[in-house]
Amino acid sequence: MSGLSSSGDIDDDEVRIMDHRGCLTLDAICFTDQLGPDHRAVVERHIRSCGVCAQQQTQLARATERMRGARPRVPVPAEIRILARQVALKGLALRARTARPSPVRQQRSTARIRALGRRRPPWYRSRTFWAAAIMGLAAAVVLVLLVLVLLQG
Amino acid sequence: MLHSMSETVIVAALRKGNLRRAVELILDSYQDEVFGYCARLVAPAEAIQVYQLVMAVALEELTTFTGTTSIRAWLYGIARRTVLRFQRKRPGSYPAALDADYAPVACPDDVLVIKLLDEDLEACIGRLNPLTREVLQLSLWQGLLLTEVAHVVGCSEARARHIAAEGLHDLSLDLSRSNSTPS
What we know:
The structure holds 2 protein chains of 2 kinds.
Chain A: H1 26-29, H2 37-49, H3 51-69, H4 78-99, H5 103-116, H6 122-152
Helix pairs in contact in A: 2-3
Chain B: H1 2-15, H2 19-41, H3 47-61, H4 71-88, H5 119-126, H6 130-141, H7 146-153, H8 157-180
Helix pairs in contact in B: 1-2, 2-3, 2-4, 3-4, 4-7, 5-8, 6-7, 6-8, 7-8
């Protein structure tokens, strides 16, 4: 009872319309409304002139209708309907919260953006360096002199 | 027609980045049929759990929807994957949900007794290969196009058509046999 037993021998991308006897294949007879207009025209033309295929189509259409008519309808229970909506909307809110950057990250990125406007010219860095170096040296000399004075005193 | 209208509105909401509207529309348009689909693939008592998982996964993946197929087929694809995952590692542990308070709700059993009125047909459907049965159910009960069915079960459209056609042929033969057999 399997539709899969012979499924391996079909071309995976194309629908075969005719079989070796010159009759329509099952693939072509079923779901004709979902075939392209060219294929559909071929099928309809053939059905009009071939009793065997017409009978086959009638049988398949009957089975299709019987199965379609037996469709069980299972609605979502009311409480689950409400719960699903709540969960979905809560989930969206949660996603929006996590997608927004944290305060620390936001602060850092703000500082980085502000720093972009405070870029120093290249000479500034070297002059500041030399000024700091001279001041440091002076402070060291003063410290050494102080120590010497204290030791002699 | 109704489905294609919903599709258009949902896709428009997604394009605008209005996730809330998209989710509401998806729930309004498809939750009954997706639930019905889940209820047929798992034991009735588990259908509610699986359905909630499907919706949670759909919500997580909503922003990755690429539009290569319809929203409907995409949703059924998620449902099928979720059911398969659920069946593989049942029961108990659920993948991380979006909401920390997320918990499946106990199932009111009387709602979920799925029995076909047509007993002969039910027996014939039961004798079909599982994949054939699923393809037929997706196309004839859920009303999916064969391209959508192909997307859901992961094959080409031609193969989905072939499976459905062979399945219908087997079904019609089996039905005519069971009709001719005196009960």
